[in-house]
Structure prediction request, 244 residues.
Amino acid sequence: MQPDLFSPPGPWYGADLDKERAEVGWYREFGDTRRNKEIPAAEASWRMKTAQQWIQHQFGVTALSFRPGGGGVSTSYTNCTERLAALAGYGWAGGRSGYLGTDVAIRGWAFYGTIECPLAVAAPPDGHDRGIAQYPEQFLRAFTEHPDIEWIGLNEYVAYTHAKLARLPDKGLHLQLTYDPHYCWHFKDNTSEWLLSVSDWLAKDLGSPTISVDGKTLTAKADLSKPSGIKMPAVLGTHSIRIK
Prediction:
C-alpha cells in the first residue's frame, strides 16, 4: 500500500469497505494515484531494497525484475520509480518500463514481443498471485495454450541484456564478453548462447576461421556466411571469444 493512509480523502483506516477501502488508488506503492501525487524517493527506495532483502532471505536468490504495483509510478527526476529501481540494483522493470542499469533507466519500452524483448504472458488463471495461490493447477495452462513459445526466465533475460561485449585489438576478431556477478548471476550455474552474425565483407575477409572460447576450440573452419551459435560455459566473469 502507499505510505500515506491518513491525508484527505482518507483516512483509509476505519473507512467503509465499499468506500475508501474499495478505492484501488490506496494500493499503489510507488505512485499515489488516489491523490495524483508522487511517493517520496526515500520511501520508495526503502520498499524496493526491503523487498530484495526479503526475497533473498526467503528464496536465496537476488531479485532482478521490478514491477510497480498496479502500474502506479512517480515521474519526477527525484522520485522517478525506474531510476530508483535501477539504483536499488534491479535490472529490468516490467509493464510500461524496460531496461534498468547503472547507465540508464528506460520508461516506455516499445519492443515487447519482438526479437528485442520477450512477450510477457499472463499467468493463468487471472494473471495475479492470488489466482495462482487459489488454483495452482491452472498455472500449467500457460504451457499448453502456447506450445510454440520458447520460454525464458526474467533472470536469464536480464543476464543477457546486462552482459558487456567489447572488441579487443587483435588479429582476426577478438571479442571480450563479461558477465557481472550481480546482474548475470543466472549464468553462474547455467550455460548461455550467443548468435554471431557478421557482415558479408567481414565474412569474406575472415575466410573459414577457427572459433574458440576461453582458449578452447569451439568450431574449426566456421562458415560465417550464416549466423553461428556460440555457447558459453556456466562461469561468471570475463570470457574470450576469438575468430581467426
Summary: DSSP finds six helices and 13 strands in the chain.
